[in-house]
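Here's a chain:
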Amino acid sequence: MNRVVITGMGAVTPIGNSVDAFWESLKAGKNGVTEITRFDASETGVTLAAELKDFDATVYMPKKETKRTDLFSQYGIAAAVQAMENSGLDTEKIDVDRFGVIVSSGIGGMNTIQEQVIKMHDRGPQRVAPFFVPMVIGNMAAGNIAIRVGAKGLCTSIVTACASGTNSIGEAFRSIKHGYLDVILAGGTEATICEIGIAGFGALTALSKSTDPERGSIPFDKERNGFVMGEGAGVLVLEELQHALDRGAKIYGEVVGYGSTCDAGHMTSPSVDGSGAGKAMIQAMKEAGIEPKDVDYINAHGTSTPANDSAETTAIKYAMGEEAHKVPISSTKSMIGHLLGAAGAVEGIACVKALENDFLPPTIGFKEADEACDLDYIPNVGRKVESAKYALSNSLGFGGHNAVVCFKKWEEA
C-alpha cells in the first residue's frame, strides 16, 4: 500500500483568504462571524453569518470567467490555485492522466439558482442565462479546477451534505493508497449566504437566532441555539509519498486513516447513542494503526446546534472510551461558522497546521458548560503542546453521513 502525504494547501475562509492568514487567525481565536451584509436579512429572523471578506475572484481567473461561474466554483478555484502554487507541482513534469480532482460541494450554485429563478419569474423563461446549468451543478467546481490545472485523471465530486469535504479527502486518500492515482486535489467549496440559503436553513430551525456575533457560533456551550452559516473553500494536494520525494516536494503532513458510516436513522438529527459517528472514528483509527490513547487532537464537527454537539460528545465517548476525557477537542466553526460541504476540507487544513505547529486551536465563545458536553473543548484560548502526532477530523452530514479522516505529523520513518 502507498503512503499518502499532503504537499500543498489552499483556503479562502471568513478569517483569511490564504492558509497562512487562516491559521494565524485560528491561533489568535479571531471571530469571523458578523452581521449579514450580502443582503437585507431582516425578514428571515437570522442576522449573523460568516462571510468572506475582501475576496477578489479576478486574482485567480479572468473577469469574463467570473460571470460564467457561481461563487462556489470561484472559491474552489481560488483554493485549488493556491494549493497548486503551494505544492510546486509542474504539470509538464508529471503524468496528468494520474492527476485527479475530488472537490465537492454540499449544495452547488445556490446564488445562481436564486438569481435566475427570480429573473425567470419577473422577465420570463427566455431571459434565463445560457450558462445557468453549468453554473449551478455541483460537480462544476471540480470540473473547472481540472480544466484550470490540466488534471486528466479521476474528476468527481461527492455530495454528502456537511461531510462532503471530509469524504473527498478520504476517498482521495484511498485512491492514492491503492495505486489508482499519484496526485489528487481534494477538498470542498460552498457559497450559500443568500436569501434562499438563510431562509431555508432558518425554516429548518437550524440557524442561530442570536444577534450578538460573540454569541452566534458557540459550540458545546449550554446557550448554543443553532449554527452560523459560513462560506469558503479548502483544497489539499494529496500525493503518493515516493512521487512527492522524487520531485523534492515539501511535505506538510500525512493522511493515514479514513472512516465513513451512515446513521440510517433520521434526515437531520444524528444518532443519539453516538454509534454512527463513533464507528467512523474507530474505522479511521484502525486504518491508521492507532488506539484512542494515541490521538492528540480532535477537530470536532461542533456545529453549535443543541442536537449535534451533545450527540458528537457521545460519539467521541463511544469511540475513545476512557480516553475521551483526556483528548483535547475543539470546533473551529466557533470562528468561521459552518461551511457545509467545505467545512471538512478547511477543518482538515486546520488539523494539518495544528500537527505541524504543535498548537491546538480553541473553541471560542465558550462561557457556560453543558452537562451533556463534558469533555475538553479547549475553551477560548488555543493550546501549545509538546508534541501532537495524530489528529482526527470529524464531519457529520444531513442524511446521517459520517466521515472522519486521521492525519499524522510528517515523519520520514
Notes: The first helix runs from residue 19 to 28. The chain is about 35% helix and 20% strand.
